[in-house]
Amino acid sequence: MKILITGGAGYIGSILTPTLLAKGYEVTVLDNFMFRQNSLADCCQYEGFQVARGDCRDETVIKELLPDADIIIPLAALVGAPLCNKDKIATQTTNSDAVQMICRLARPEQKILMPITNSGYGIGESGKFCTEDSPLRPISLYGTTKVEAEKAVLERKNSITFRLATVFGMAPRMRVDLLVNDFVYRALHDRAVVIFEGHFKRNYIHIRDVANVFLHGIENFESMKGKPYNVGLDDANLSKLELCAEIQKHLPKFVYLEAPIGEDPDKRDYIVSNARILSTGFKPEWSLNRGIQELIKGYTILHNSLYSNV
């Protein structure tokens, strides 16, 4: 089975691509390598691996790569509010327009599995879990463009979307700016963090479980297609203060304080139910605490901010 991944050299792609290759899939990656990363260098050992340097918004490039694919995984995106606000046009054309183009060009029998984001829920109701039937009220450009992309993908029926919780964990194309990754880095190297609006809650998922849920979706496509799925840890619907308390268990010298004034520009605040994906037989393998331990080891190696999106 042949898989086309756009943005396959990014944070998620740098884990997903070798995972698929190790399972025997043939994988073609399209990426513009905007961060000058070499995250797929180890994949070159696989005969079934092909790579193209190009832009996912270029219809000529997509038309050349698309015909051979049985499965399409559009990972290419500008991710996170700071990067999206830095280039709003590129965000719209990459995160939404390029995905809609793929949906228009793909044959009906070609399968699409796409990561979205549960940030589309925006600000949830206090004490009430967001399910896949909850209203989508994105409060950022990133969330808005991903919700638009999901709508286009699900309208074609032969598709699955994964509404990912905030991802954490080590990867060849590392991102230190994601919340868990950022707090563990600060806890290890700065030993302190100042928190704004520490009661805001989010859900979390390890990057290797993100790769695993794509494998699960491919293997169970017929029974899962046509629906969105929340993908997160049921025991990790945590506020920022609760997250810091978990990190402090591993790094006792870590001090965290909530600022009495000021605000977080990221206003997302919600708790999420992952019951639908769990009902399909998927089970996450990585707990939050296991991921924190992994990050502490990783940050003994990495000691700079070159691996952030902004």
From TrEMBL:
Residues 3-232 form the NAD-dependent epimerase/dehydratase domain. InterPro entries: Epimerase_deHydtase, Lipid_A_modif_metabolic_enz, NAD(P)-bd_dom_sf. It comes from the Bacteria. It holds the Pfam family Epimerase. PANTHER family: BIFUNCTIONAL POLYMYXIN RESISTANCE PROTEIN ARNA, NAD(P)-BINDING DOMAIN-CONTAINING PROTEIN. This is NAD-dependent epimerase/dehydratase. It comes from Lusitaniella coriacea LEGE 07157. The lineage of its organism: Bacteria, Bacillati, Cyanobacteriota, Cyanophyceae, Spirulinales.
